[in-house]
Design a protein that fits this description.
The complex is a heterodimer.
Chain A: E1 3-6, E2 10-11, H1 16-23, E3 32-35, E4 41-42, H2 44-55, E5 62-64, H3 69-77, H4 80-87, E6 89-90, E7 107-112, H5 115-135, H6 141-162, E8 166-174, E9 183-191, H7 195-202, H8 214-223, H9 236-247, E10 251-257, E11 259-263, E12 273-274, E13 280-290
Helix pairs in contact in A: 2-4, 5-6, 6-9
Chain B: E1 2-5, H1 6-13, H2 24-39, E2 46-50, H3 59-76, E3 82-86, H4 90-103, E4 106-110, E5 116-120, H5 124-136, E6 139-140, H6 141-148, H7 152-164, E7 168-171, E8 174-177
């Protein structure tokens, strides 16, 4: 029997939980159809997480693309179908993928599997990101460097810890649900690798505590900056990301396994810690940097 | 003083056609190459690490290229006479300061105009005395203690700490900056 997983009309990091809740009862080799026909909006997290979902299926899932032509066109420009066609059995016709780098999307959905990919991502995004951060989000020039460092460290987590390739996408858009429609810059980095708990276990970096689960692993890695590597200098990447996000009044959320933690700024009402979520392999990270108010020229 | 162009090292040792120092493997490759170049210096020679052609640097790379290099040199306890960082900009400083603080390390940054600055984990006393030595060009402990109104033993301890951390040079009784750009 084939299970139909219906995507919400607005696909973001929180509504993606509805997708995982639907998927949870079905083993990885079950036949699945992912139905995006009525989806009209997707964040970078939504698109990268969908590809990650596809990676977790041993039996290739079918995919029904959005019916809304604008949505379909945007997903194509974002590079989603270029990769989705390799991971899903995509039904119907989708707009032809354009050559990578042509779209107005800040960084299209981009695979990250090795260190060279991180170099390439950093190189591609720097100028475009600097322009938007300074001229649209009204951040000071030094903030652009921190943004690129943050992106680099987030991507490196895949290379260093996931054990398999993942995805990154960056986009700027008006955040209508919050912030009164202020512009935000969003980085989404998703993988279907081993996740934080198994990564820390593999390096024997599990804290000496009776309780050990995905939430504890996230707290150990993200809050306490513990890496699976025991070297003194390790763990600074996530610490640096945290610091950058905090200084820019931004938001950081990290999901792994059955838990999710978030550094929540005053402008958002997300909860800092969610547990007992539907299980999903790997790690999924989202960084949101908002436009600075009162600084526009 | 021997100049090591980190941008050139990046292109050749890490085989990366970009100017940004990102990722640990890249940083490790660059550091190993710099270590080899420093090992070939004569005892007492100062290595000038020139970052002028480096775009940005992330935390992982700063840890590999800067922190681990300083830790290796400290562990060796021999040549060279010191390491000076040149061409450092805000694009590098954010990551460098974080990793230096993390490891309790410090370094000397030399600016193009000849000015120098101490960056990293140093006490207020160490910074103040380092700046005085740097301004004087050279100094002995006795005159520094007199000028600062401190006990000689106290001044000698701080100067020696700066020397051991390779933030000052020591020649006989004289302490001096690790080397101006020539």
């Amino acid at each position: 029997m084939t299970a139909v997983i219906t995507l919400p009309s607005s696909l973001d990091d929180l509504s993606f939980e509805q997708v995982l809740d639907q998927l949870a009862p079905h083993p990885a080799d079950a036949k699945v159809i992912v139905d995006a026909r009525h989806t009209t909006f997707a964040t970078p997290f939504g698109l990268t997480a969908l590809l990650t979902l596809a990676q977790t299926r041993t039996d290739m899932a079918e995919f029904l693309p959005p019916e809304d032509p604008d949505t379909l066109s945007y997903w194509a420009r974002a590079g989603f179908f270029r990769h989705a066609e390799e991971l899903f059995a995509v039904r119907g016709t989708v707009p032809r993928p354009r050559v990578a780098g042509e779209s107005e999307v800040l960084l299209e959905v981009t695979p990250v599997t090795k260190s060279d990919d991180v170099h390439s991502v950093v190189e591609r995004i720097q100028q475009k990101a600097a322009h938007i951060l300074i001229n649209k989000l009204h951040l000071e020039p030094r903030a652009t460097m921190g943004f690129t460092m943050t992106l680099s460290e987030a991507c490196q987590n895949i290379v260093e810890h996931a054990g398999r390739g993942g995805w990154v996408m960056v986009q700027a858009y008006r955040y209508k649900k919050r912030l009164g429609g202020r512009l935000v810059m969003v980085i989404a980095v998703c993988d279907a690798g081993v996740g934080f708990r198994r990564s820390l276990e593999s390096g024997q970096r599990r804290p000496l505590t009776d309780r050990w689960d995905d939430a504890m692993a996230l707290e150990t890695a993200v809050v306490n900056s513990v890496s699976r590597y025991g070297e003194a200098g390790r763990g600074q990447g996530l610490k640096g990301i945290r610091g950058y996000v905090h200084r820019r009044d931004g938001k950081l959320s990290v999901r792994s396994g059955t838990a999710r933690i978030a550094y929540v700024p005053p402008w958002d009402d997300d909860v800092p810690r969610r547990e007992d979520l539907a299980p999903f392999p790997g790690a999924q990270l989202q960084i949101t940097i908002p436009e600075r108010v009162g600084a526009a020229a | 003083m021997t100049r090591i162009d980190v941008g050139s090292v990046l292109r050749h040792s890490a085989n990366v056609p970009f100017s940004d120092l990102v990722t640990r493997p890249t940083g490790a490759a660059v550091r190993r190459c710099i270590e080899r170049e420093i090992a070939a210096l004569n005892a007492g020679d100062v290595a000038l690490l020139d970052f002028s052609h480096i775009g940005m640097m992330d935390y992982s790379c700063a840890d590999e290229v800067v922190a681990k290099l300083l830790l290796t040199l400290a562990a060796q306890g021999s040549a060279p006479g010191g390491v000076v960082f040149h061409g450092i900009t805000d694009a590098h400083l954010e990551a460098i300061e974080v990793v230096l603080d993390h490891h309790g390390l410090a370094l000397v940054v030399q600016f193009a105009d000849g000015g120098a600055r101490l960056v990293g984990a140093v006490t207020d006393d160490e910074r103040e005395i380092w700046e005085q030595v740097n301004a004087r060009g050279s100094a002995v402990a006795e005159e520094m203690a007199t000028a600062a109104g401190r006990e000689l033993v106290d001044m000698a301890r701080i100067l020696d700490s700066l020397r051991r951390r390779r933030l000052l040079r020591h020649d006989g009784a004289t302490y001096a900056p690790v080397g101006p750009v020539q």
